[in-house]
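Researcher: Structure for this, please.
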Amino acid sequence: MAPPPKGSAADRDVSGPGRDVPGPGRDVPGPGRDVIVLVGGEPTDAAHVDRSILPAGALVIAADSGLAHAAPWGLVVDVVVGDLDSVDRAELDAAVAAGARVDEHPEAKDETDFELALASARDAGARRVLVIGGAGRRLDHLLGNLLLLGSDAWAGLEIQARIGPAHVWVVRTEAAITGAPGDLLTLLPVGGPASGVLTTGLRYPLHAETLPAGTPRGVSNELLGHEATVRVSGGVLLAIHPGAES
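Model: Predicted structure, token format:
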């Protein structure tokens, strides 16, 4: 990775690795606060932007090039974290000028930038996290991002994600699903089997059943109305509403 130009945001305003550093004059989130994490990938499609889902007063953390999602979603970024190998330097300078801080890490590291951003959210005392972005042309990145959502490292977080047109709920106990009648909903266990899976409001209900890891049984269920619930007593499920392509 080429070094940043002298005088750039990365050159003049970098914190130590692993530290959460909200911008000057902004509130540090206490326990239970919302955090929005922006993840790199394909550019934001305006058809997929729904600002009504954004929690008010949330801390906004951008994982490297995820910073590019801030403008289309009307967000002001508080922290930019990662190795900064793909972020647009002009966007980074503008974010710092607006009050963001930078938490730069080496390019040679064990964690992905997305993982660092989730860790930053957790360490800031967040309870609820909304992830935006993460869809791209590389299948390995997409699968890695989805598996990361179900990691035990985030067991204390309530996580939802908007990945392109898709809406993902990470279900560790219970999740309320919203959509329209006839919308598809897929249930995928991650990290092992999901047990005691109980659903309401779906065409093909599950009654305290076990979904083994790797099973496609939960693919392409359907919402009967505008709301459904998914509960588990053990394990983790990803409830995926694929949405509609623009």
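Researcher: Any notable elements?
Model: The two ends are 35 Å apart (CA to CA). The mean pLDDT is 88.
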